[in-house]
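Lab manual, section 2.4: Encoding a predicted structure.

Procedure: take the sequence of the chain (126 residues), apply the prediction step described in section 2.3, and record the output as C-alpha cells. A sample record is shown.
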Amino acid sequence: MGDSVGHGAAGDRLRAAKTGMQRVKDLLAQPSPANADQAAAILREVEVQLGCAAAILEKSGPPPDGEFRSALEELQGEVATLARFLSGADKLFSDWLRAVQTRRGGYTHRGQAAPLVLVNKVTVEG
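Recorded output:
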C-alpha cells in the first residue's frame, strides 16, 4: 500500500515538473528580461520537483512500469539541456558586452591601450 501511495506522490511531482517545464518553454518563446527571470525561477522549481520524484521512487521502490522512470529521466535531460543552454547564452552575452565596453573605452580585449590611429590631414580654423 505504501508503494502505491509513494508512486502516486512521485507521479504528482512529475506532472508538476512537466507543467512547469511547459511554462518555461512558453516564457522563453517570448523573450524579455522579466520572462527570463520568471523562467529561471520556474526552472529551479522544476528541478526540485524532479529531485523529489526521484527520491520518492528510490524510497518506495521501482514503479510498476518502466514508462514512468523513462519519463522522469527524459524530463531531467530536458532540464539539464536547457540549463546548459541558458548558462552558455549568459556567458556569450557577458563576453559580448565586455568586448563592446572595452572597445568603447579605448582598450583591446586584453586590456591594453588600443593602437593610435593617425589622421593624415588636420584643419584648424580660428
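Check your result against the sample. The chain has a mean pLDDT of 80.
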